[in-house]
Structures are given as C-alpha cells and as structure tokens.
Amino acid sequence: MPSAMSPENRPGRLAVGVVGAGRVGTTLGAALNLAGHRVVAAAAVSDVSRTRAAERLPGVALMTPQEVVEAADLVLLTVPDDVLPDLVGGLIATGVPVAGKLIAHASGRHGVTVLAPATRAGGLPLALHPVMTFTGRTDDLHRLAGISFGITSPDQLRPVAEALVMEMGGEPVWIPEDKRTLYHAALTGGANHLVTLVVESMGLLRSVGVENPSAMLGPLLGAALDNALRLGMAGLTGPVARGDAGTVAEHIAELGQVSPEGLRAYVALARLTADRALAAGLLKPEDAERLLEVLAD
C-alpha cells in the first residue's frame, strides 16, 4: 500500500496527458509518473509511437489529442517544432476546454508565444525544454537526472515550471521569451554539429586504415570537450592555435581530394577558430594573417 510519503500522495498531483508519444514525450511522462503525477492519456500516431507509449507508459489509454486534453490537468505537447503552432491552433479550433489547464511544450525553439491560442482560451502556458539528446533507448529516463531545462512562462507560473522540472530530476534555467531562438541555436550548434564532426572524423580515419576510430578519438575528444567546458578558448590546441599555416594548407589540399563536403566545414570552423584565438590573445596577429590567407584561398 502507498505510504503517506509516497510520491503519489504528495500535494498537487496532476493528471497528465501526452500529445505526441515520441522519445521526449514518453520520457517526460515517465518522469512525471515517478514523481507521483499520473499519466492518464496519450495520443500516438505511428506504430512506433504506440509501441513506445505501451512500453514507457504502461496501461495509459491511447486517445485523440482532444480527448487527451480533456482528460488532463497538465498537457504535454511533445511534437516537432514546426508542427507545434498548427497543433495548438487546431486543438483550440475544436473547442476543447483548456481553461485552468497547464499547457506545456518541450520545444527549445519556442517560448510561450506559440501557445497564445490556448492562453487566450484560459490555458496556463509553460515551455519546458530538456537540454539533452534522446535516442529512444531505455536509458533516456536516467538522462534527465541533473540536466538543465530551459524554461519560459508568465511570471506567475514560474514557480510551477520550476517545481515540475525539479520533480523530474532537472535543473530549471530561465530563458527570456525573446531569446529562445538564440538559446536553441547555441544548443543545436554544439550538440548536433558535434555528432557530424565526430562521424566525419571517424570516416576519414577509416579511410586511412584505422580499424577502430572510436577508440582512437574517444580519449582525445573527451579531453578536448573537458578543456573547452572548463577553460574556454584557453583549452585550444592544434595547428590553428599554433599558427601553423603550412599544416592547415596541407589539410585543405588533402581534404579537397577526399572529402569536399568536409573541407567546407573544416575551412569555416578553422576561420572561426582563428578569429576566436586571435581575440583571446592566443594567436599572434601575423600568424593569424597567414592562416586567414590560407583559408581564404
């Protein structure tokens, strides 16, 4: 029997509905379940989403989006960024009651303006963006522990947003409405492009005969990431930091033969690195000039 101290017996427990039973929606729903809230309904379109809902939210009824909203006190709209505006507008157009309900999304790009149709109808808008990549694997739920959530809400709802994030094991970080796009661009540029860069590096290493490129890159990239997070530009190493224009020129020539697409990324990032190193005082102006001449060619 649940004790008085069990999560489900805490005050303010909510009936939760998930519209969009994808990787993020089911993960957040499962986390809210663990916090004592109760996911009562979910909307899932694809077979994959229905299977995921059954695995992560066992026993939860699958309903239409309108029925999910009607059944819930807290509605999670966990759909792709570009789908979110039409989903909100479409739900409100059906006349589904939202007054007094918490309407939350997990988009990084959007704040609460995208929820304006629901807000005008009496809904209580929240933007709760988990700063984590979700792969659909079973460890997604554990990845919530200690991560940041970028939150945006009306001032009077900020304590609610913060409480929900902390109950899911996260750390709330306030993001102003007008800074959401830049906030999201920063995260996307760091995380998504990192994957592309690592995969490109592994492919190039395979092309020169390295059988296990991940084993070779792992320690190097781990140290580089740690240096960047702790030291900023002071953690920079390599030919650009040393002003080795000749080495960079040879890289460019070789990449032009092997990976023209990778070459364009290399040049763009080398230019940015040179600019940042010069501004940080790590690179002498004359060395920067030689580097930028090579990169311009």
Fold and architecture overview:
Strands 3-2-1-4-5-6-7-8 form an 8-stranded mixed β-sheet, sandwiched between helices. It is of the alpha/beta class. The protein contains 12 helices and 8 strands. It has helices at 23-34, 47-56, 65-71, 84-93, 116-120, 158-167, 180-207, 213-231, 239-242, 245-258, 260-279, 285-296; strands at 15-19, 38-43, 61-62, 74-77, 102-105, 124-130, 148-152, 171-174.
Main sheet strand line-up? 3-2-1-4-5-6-7-8
Low-confidence stretches: none
Order of helices and strands: EHEHEHEHEHEEHEHHHHHH
| Sheet having the most strands | 8 strands, mixed
Could you tell me the number of beta strands?
8
Itemize the secondary structure elements and their pairings:
Blueprint: E1 15-19, H1 23-34, E2 38-43, H2 47-56, E3 61-62, H3 65-71, E4 74-77, H4 84-93, E5 102-105, H5 116-120, E6 124-130, E7 148-152, H6 158-167, E8 171-174, H7 180-207, H8 213-231, H9 239-242, H10 245-258, H11 260-279, H12 285-296
Parallel strand pairs: 1-2, 1-4, 2-3, 4-5, 5-6, 7-8
Antiparallel strand pairs: 6-7
Helix pairs in contact: 1-2, 10-11, 10-12, 11-12
